Amino acid sequence: MPYYRLKDLIKAIRACKTAADERAVIQKESAAIRTSFKEENNDARHSNVAKLLYIHMLGYPAHFGQIECLKLVASNRFADKRLGYLGIMLLLDENQEVLTLVTNSLKNDMNHSNMYIVGLALCTLGNISSPEMARDLCAEVEKLLGSSNVYIRKKAALCAMRIIRKVPELQENFLSKAKSLLSDRNHGVLLTATTLITEMCHRNPDTLVTFRKAVPLLVRHLKSLVSAGFSPEHDVTGVTDPFLQVKILRLMRILGKGDAEASEAMNDILAQVATNTESSKNVGNSILYETVLTIMEIQSESGLRVLAINILGKFLTNRDNNIRYVALTTLNKTVSIDTNAVQRHRNIILDCLRDGDISIRRRALELSFALINETNVRVLTRELLAFLEVADNEFKQGMTTKICLAADRFAPNKRWHIDTVLRVLKLAGNYVREEILSNFIRLIAQTKDLNAYTVQKLYAALKADISQESLTLASVWVIGEYGDILIKGGSFEEEELVKEVTEPDVVDLFESILAGPYANQVTREYVLTALMKLTSRFTSTPVIQRIQAILERYNTSIEVEIQQRAIEYTNLFKFDNIRPAVLERIPIPESKEETSRPTDDFSSGGGGGGSLLDLDGDSIATDVKKVNASENSQNTVDILATIFGSGPSDTTDNLTPSRSNPKDDIMSLFNTGPTTTTSPNLIENTPSANPLDDLITTSLPSTNENLLGLSSIKQIAPSQNTQTVNPLDSLMDLGSTKLSTAISPPTETNAPAYNKNGFKIGLSPFKDQNNPNILNINVTFHNVGVGSDVQNLLFQAAVPKTQRLQMQPPSSTTIAPGAIVTQTIRVANPQRVNVRLKLRIVYDTSAGGKVDDIAEFSGFPQDFW
């Protein structure tokens, strides 16, 4: 039995105890409604559509009632039209073809004498208008904007906004009418007019010039609202029409942005709104919030900006969490505009770190980092470290990174910097990023005068707690590097007592780490390498033998990397004449301040955004890579000095070919052949951008890499062609398949680069046609007077870090007497500096001799840079 009234249907559905019962009732009623529609029962149509809309609201299909809604719209009764338009707005959308049948009804009803029927048509068009309908009915809406009826003007303005969104080019039709609506005295019309104009300005910035002329009118409206007395019609908790005030403030914000004249006209009224609006209730706070946003967006006076930030500071003392959150979010956006004004509220911001709401703590934390500068770095860092101790785990990784970056940027001295990072490692060592740890080790290596202090502090910290991974890694590395300084210092502080440090104490500590529950593969790699280094730092033979025994225990480790290290280190004990040189301290790393101090991270005013505010885990690593690439050009001289041995350190050969035997690795580093120059300080002349890389390589090395991962040269043989080309193809598009089209004919320049023992090498440079940053070099090998065939030719080259090198295979590895062999080198030189090559020449003679020699060349004319 069908339910003939909507109320009866609602009661029946509510009486259902299960979803199945509800579905049964809905299906039964839907079938009855369908039958009624087919019978063209006009008397029941209104009731049936009403029930169908209720069924639709419950989530059941009701599409079969769309045409019935159109029939109701065509009726002359207002009740039928109202229900029909409601059904159209609910059951249809702008993509359905049925909607085209509504256009004529809408046009007729827009010209109706009853303003409420006109309002129904405008409301429907404003909700479901398609681009086609918007074009067809645009003229009608434009005409209604000039209606004498306030109700119709208000509806027409909102309908015009929908038309502009669907067909932006129709905006010009409404410009003059929209501007005239701003002169209306009715608050409803003013509200819709400001909304329409705001939408126009967003859609088409060219209209800003037109509406900026209306700024004085907007100022007058706002002034009348602020100074008006009590008006029952518009009063909301003591504030006159807050909705209109907010809309006007938003429009003023758009019109004043980037325009000094418009901003000047707004300053006085904004100050008046900011000082006279009651802030004890949310209505007043909403107006103050919009006022603050407007002041910070336009070209306002400095005093007005201070007033705006003081309002936000007052918001921070509010008990409502939502208001405090909004204040912190807004301060984060405005801190770069006026940092000093925000600094005055620093204590309140720090108090928010202890708030019970995690969202407020997160925003306060971001703002605290943004406020750090040279003058307050000690105070703020102390507060942030105190918060780090009790912070949720989700905050710790971001906090450790930002505290260390801030310390690196604003540290008053090196000792404070080291103490701060050490404190971070103690509190949250398991949440420290790898690049932060790397920067800390670089800082220690660069601060020689504090090495003794640092190694003692780290030893004491490690002795107290081995559970923090980054603290363990940093301490092990520093003790391994400066263990002799720790022993010579003779003492460390523990609970205000000075205790002696002996060599067995250090080894005991390292053994406890290896046996402890917190050791992982990386930790064991660090400890084994540090122990090996200590064999050249310590003097006690029993201790060195004990270290050797520890290393031998890991010769059968199931972890391949650990096993390889242990075997290589154990074998190194057989070469006591070279072991001290291999295990010498690394050189002082190059100064790469920008790796931890991105220039955009802090504003010139001392506050900052950038990576200090960025909680994204990958952002900092990305920034470091970008900055490294850009800063290489500034350190060219230092890099070249390190690579080519022209600095104070000894000249060495780090262009070592790969070997398959670990023993040969070590011996090849210190080749004592008659033509190769080496120095005992080999390891000190191996530059590394990351001190951690000098200690260990975390990736799994193959056995053909040398002991300490020093293979960093290009080695080309005919069988190695494809492996050498690929890495540079992605960077410089230097694929070998493009050589025939990219290389221009060589010039006559042929510079001699090597001439010894009857073997000559000449270099002929010429620019690449497609890329002026690439220099092509033809290398010619000439067997002038060796006296026999040159066999197994191996030619290697290295360039400074600011350049990239690609080598093609030689035309042959055997050169008969008097014959010539050629090879092509390509150098990417984006900085356009002098191309400096370090060359290694290795060959055998058919008479049984072997030559392994080193040469340097930097004599290319400036035209080829």
Describe the structure.
It is found in: Cytoplasmic vesicle membrane; Golgi apparatus. The protein is of the alpha+beta class. Among the domains are: 447-583; 751-857, Gamma-adaptin ear (GAE) domain (Immunoglobulin-like, Sandwich), CATH 2.60.40. It is 54% helix and 9% strand. A 5-stranded antiparallel β-sheet has the order 6-7-8-11-10. The protein has a 4-stranded antiparallel β-sheet with strand order 5-9-12-13, with no helix packed on it. Helix 17 (302-316) packs antiparallel against helix 18 (321-334), helix 28 runs antiparallel to helix 29 and helix 29 (521-537) runs antiparallel to helix 30. The relative contact order is 0.04.
Structural topology:
Elements: H1 6-14, H2 19-38, H3 42-57, H4 66-73, H5 78-91, H6 103-110, H7 115-128, H8 131-144, H9 150-166, H10 175-181, H11 187-203, H12 208-212, H13 215-227, E1 235-236, E2 239-240, H14 242-256, H15 260-276, H16 282-297, H17 302-316, H18 321-334, H19 339-343, H20 346-351, H21 358-371, H22 377-390, H23 393-410, H24 414-428, H25 434-446, H26 451-464, H27 469-489, E3 491-494, E4 497-500, H28 503-515, H29 521-537, H30 541-553, H31 560-572, H32 579-582, H33 619-631, H34 636-644, H35 662-669, H36 691-695, E5 714-716, H37 721-732, H38 739-742, E6 751-756, E7 759-767, E8 774-783, E9 790-798, E10 804-807, E11 820-828, E12 837-845, E13 850-857
Helix pairs in contact: 1-2, 2-3, 3-5, 4-5, 5-7, 6-7, 6-8, 7-9, 8-9, 9-11, 10-11, 11-14, 13-14, 13-15, 14-16, 15-16, 15-17, 16-17, 16-18, 17-18, 18-21, 22-23, 22-24, 23-24, 25-27, 26-27, 27-28, 27-29, 28-29, 28-30, 29-30, 29-31, 30-31
Domain GAE: 746-861
Keywords: Cytoplasmic vesicle, Golgi apparatus, Membrane, Protein transport, Transport
Biased composition (Basic and acidic residues): 590-600
